[in-house]
Amino acid sequence: MTTRAQTAGRQAAARRREGTWIEAVLAHLVFAAVIVFFLAPFVWLLTAAFDADAQAYIRWPSQLTLDNFVRVFTEHDFGRALANSALVAGLTMLLDVVAVSLAGYSLSRMDLRFKSAITYGVLLLQTMPLSATMVPIYGLARAVGLRNSYLGLILIHAAIELPFLIWLMKGFFDSVPRYLEEAAWLDGRSKLRALVEVVLPVARNGIGVVAGLSFLAAWAEVLMVIILVDRQDMFTVPLAFYQVLRTRGGYTEVQYGMVAAMGVLYLVPVMVIFFATRRMMVRGLLSSARGL
Amino acid sequence: MRSGDAQSPLRFVSPAGRALYPRDVVARNSPYLLGVTPAALLLTLFFIGPALWAVYSSLTNLALVGIDAANPRFVGQDNYARLFQDPDFWTVIRNSVTFVLGSAVIGQFVLGLSLAVLIDHAERRGWRLATLAYAAVLLAWVNPTLIAGYLWSAMFDFFFGSLNHVFLSAIGVGPVDWLGSFPMPSVIIANVWRGTAFTMIIFLGALKTIPPDIYEAARIDGANAWRRFWDHTLPSLRPIAALTLLSITMATFGTFILIQTLTNGGPNIATETIALYAYQTAFQSYAIGYGSAIAVVMLGLNLIFAVFYLRWSRARA
Questions:
Q1: Which residue of B39, B47, B182, B251 has the fewest C-beta atoms within 10 A of its own C-beta?
Q2: Which domain range does residue B50 map to?
Q3: Is there a contact between B162 and A40 if contact means CB atoms under 8 Å apart?
């Protein structure tokens, strides 16, 4: 038995070796094509942002300049937008970390008959497209005075990713053994203190993912900002970019360089945060998919 | 005494011996019920509330401005009757289905799965270029959608876009009017570019969980790579495939900003999906009631998709 299997294995290995170099060349061609397709738009964005006379196509800048970046700040009050965005995304992150820790832990430890139905219900909410509910959200915000307000932006941005983040965090808490918190209760700690002092440190990777994803989502999200904000001093980065896109990048005077510079400033924080925490983020995503 | 309690008509006990008394359950779970409250409030305010409000206002003639804004009238199913008789609505539905099938189910899913398999293979062989390809795909996904729309509107530009001016001219092909003559394929390409990473990440992770001895056994049996993939890899990925499809279908169905920045639904209504149609009806024609009816149809379709995928995944799991 063993010998027959070994012989077959050797034959298969020989066949594989023959195919190896063709396979390798083909695979590398595919990778090269993938890299060109996915990176080309970014190459354009970067070169256009530093080009004194940017065009719609990729080329080496006619004259390297930082002028586009200067104009972003002098002509568009972009500093204000950056500050607004940092404030909104930061506080959204804080609110999400608190709400998601409490809800994820509670859902994980709750003992209800309909718990799995509730958990799936939360997941179903996440599949609800924001573009379907934006009209009622607009109406609601207008009725209760949450338009052009930081509070409104923070609440809505905290809510957008909430179902997914709760689901994600519940998975992290499910893997934390219960005897840890039970020991803390016996020490006389309240449930809240046990959560904060004993459980959260164990689930800190999950908290990191929640914090990162909620900040990134709030930083990038544009649909809600479009319908909730129309006061210039309340503009966030996505809204400033959206407006410039519609006026300067569009049909009147095409100013690729300046719009690209603004895009770079919008994109860079996202890239830095994501790639610095890439492994943690990807692992978090995977664990949520496995929990499904 | 305990067993006597179980006989009591007032105390229901499940076969497992767990009391199903509502009061018991509430008392035992009270800290946890308190814990979900902040999240539940946010979800009610921004998910459940708006959905219910959409259902209500879809039965009225509420408008954004004018007399109907102050005093909306109940009009019953008029909005729906009007919607289903609107030929544009059926075009919009067809566009949405094409966009979802083309960019999520076929584009992102097939490309993402293929890339995951290829990169997984490359990692075992130690081919370094795979890492760069992985990062490139990931970058497009992390990138805010609004920027994706801007980047691709430049790429597709008829006169000076990179696709025509750099790539096609390099191989001697004349310019193509991407957004004019092939609007739907173009927005599909942009959305595939933006969303492929999600499928790739999920499947790369899933592939690592397949025990290698399955492959060893199949290899010893003399199965070639394609057979091994078809017989062993794919079946074990099926449950996760269902949920990945659910995620990307829903995300694509709700796509708004990407299409708005690229074509704004045009030319004419060639790329107008249901999300854009709802937005334009509500905010440009100021017909909130009618726009809400479109939103309700969208939510209904969404629910049907979601239930379908969830049942499918659980049946396989």
A1: B182
A2: 2-57
A3: yes
